[in-house]
Amino acid sequence: MRMNKKYRNEWKYRCTKQELAQIETKLGALLQKDIHAGNGGIYRVHSLYFDDARDSCAIETEAGDAIRFKYRIRYYDDAPSFLRLERKEKLNGGCHKESCLLSQKEFYSLLSGNANLFLFDDQRTVLRRFAVDMLSRHFTPRAIIDYERVAYVEPVTNVRITMDYNIAVSNQFDLFLSGDYLKIPLQKKGEHILEVKFDEILPGYIKQGLYESQLQQCSFSKYYLGYQKLKGWGL
Known about the structure:
Elements: E1 8-16, H1 17-27, E2 32-33, E3 43-51, H2 56-63, E4 67-76, E5 83-91, E6 94-102, H3 104-111, H4 125-137, E7 140-154, E8 159-170, E9 184-185, E10 191-198, H5 204-212, E11 217-218, H6 222-232
Antiparallel strand pairs: 1-6, 1-10, 1-11, 2-7, 3-4, 3-7, 4-5, 5-6, 7-8, 8-9, 8-10
């Protein structure tokens, strides 16, 4: 039931590279770098988003529906052997995420229309749910979203701050696992995204750092903007 799910806050800000550098200066010394980042502290995120035959995920995002969800398959850097299926649900601005690992063989089975293989015996609840939605609502790949990420964490209060650079979209789904797909920029040159994710309470020093930077909170859906960009390009 929904009452048993834990929903996190997600605050988003459109930023310049200079504004993100200021945030790193203020908060970087107080937070830990994400352990998954490479030596440069940056890693690349590849996400394949799905939508149904009615474009429900995109339409509900555009309408700002209080309750909505989306599916994506994600991997990091050049490691498509580590695939993760995620179902991200929103409720009144809060976010809840369920996920499971996928093999490349399972990935190709899903993309080939063999979702029925995961309906009954598989123990991964989110995968079974995805399989049902693929068969009943005809979920199919709609957009690859690609970007570079720098992430900081505060483990005691479970805060995560991410800085996403050079966000791009593609519809070359057959090249998703290679990473060698066409990348169409989603934002104006020099514009990037800051996300602040936390549970009930955001520590005061982080809130103060955001306040001092005079950033304006905004709504921002990478999938929706990618969906719109592909439509506009006629792709």
